[in-house]
Structures are given as C-alpha cells and as structure tokens.
Amino acid sequence: MKKVVAYINTYRVHWIVDELQKTGIDDISIYQRFKPLSQISRIEFYCDISNLETVRTIIHNIGNNGNPSDHMIEIFDYTDK
Length: 81
Prior knowledge:
Blueprint: E1 2-9, H1 13-22, E2 29-35, E3 38-47, H2 52-63, E4 72-77
Antiparallel strand pairs: 1-3, 1-4, 2-3
Helix pairs in contact: 1-2
C-alpha cells in the first residue's frame, strides 16, 4: 500500500477526483490554498502498489495544464498497523 500526496492546480481537482474514483479510490482528502498569485490544492489518498502507475498517469495527464512544473507527486510507503 502507498500513500500518494499530489499538489495540483485547484481548477483541475474535480477532474482528477472523478478519474481516481473510476479506479476504485474512494477516500480522497483535499486541502486548498488561495493566495493572490497562487491557487494550489493538495490531494492525499492511499492506493495499492499495482494501481500506482495508473494513478501517476492520471495526475500527470489531468493535473498538467501545459507548464513544465505545475504539479508534483510524492509517494510514501504505508503499512496499516
């Protein structure tokens, strides 16, 4: 199991959530921050290792608005204790 944290453009959150739910991920936390020149959302969820590449592709393809570094993905090991 992996914990995924992604930072994306706030305007793209609902599209990413829709696509992640299609893969079976149904527990997603979203944190949004608004500043005059920055609008960013942090999404967090857990996924199986077998689903990780699909998740990366969704975040990269939908979370990207064309700028080279407009999103970021962090992946952490997670063990349920």
